[in-house]
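Q: Could you fold this chain for me?
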Amino acid sequence: MNNKQFYNQYNYPNLKYLGKTHTTLMKKILSFANLTIPDLKDKDVLDAGCGTGDKSIFSALKGAKVTSIDLSSGQLQKAKENAAANNVKIRILEMDILNPDFKKLGKFDYIFCLGVLHHTKNAKKGFENLCKLLKPNGIIIIALYHKYARLKYRIIRTLLRIFVSKDPEKLISFLFSKNIFAQILNTVTKETIYDRYAVPFESYHTLREARKWFKQKKIIEMAHSENVNGFEPFKIFEKKTLFFISGKKSRK
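A: Sure. Below is the predicted structure, expressed as structure tokens.
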């Protein structure tokens, strides 16, 4: 099973678009680019790897003109249903970040690619493709799995695949059948467990690496969620396994 097949079957995420938790999350994400929620109004926004459309719908409800792309038809069908349920208009396209239709997509003021690039076979290429879709002064925000902070889950994933199964259904059935995991599993949704332990492919990155990507594409770095002076391997002790980084395309 590849990632496309996985997400066709196991939709992710599952959030309330106007709930307090999600509003707080979006405020935090936008803050990494010195943006606020009102800044979304009338802007062309690309949600690259939109999943079930949570960030797309939130942005559309706040007045953005949203295009949502994803590789998974199953995810997109759920996104369409969610958009209809929230009475918002979103352009939804099935498309691979590694091979996008640049002409069809057009250019964007803001591009969000959050927790997506590390599920592609070439995260750097995906980022470079997205940069081509930015308008002059356009802003991109990405979030990647941290090489060290994600280590604890990588170890668990590896052990589960060696001693249990690589099949997602068998893997999850095992986890939920063992009392030893009950306390852990009860603190998160089933969808999160699928995404955390059963996704067929994921890659891991560092802030230093991502900053090089931005520099090479001449994207002016704006902000990030990491302590740039910190020793990155120490991230293994942190709970947050994602890091955010944003940048702006120059006018040239």
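A (continued): Residues 73-85 form the longest helix (13 residues).
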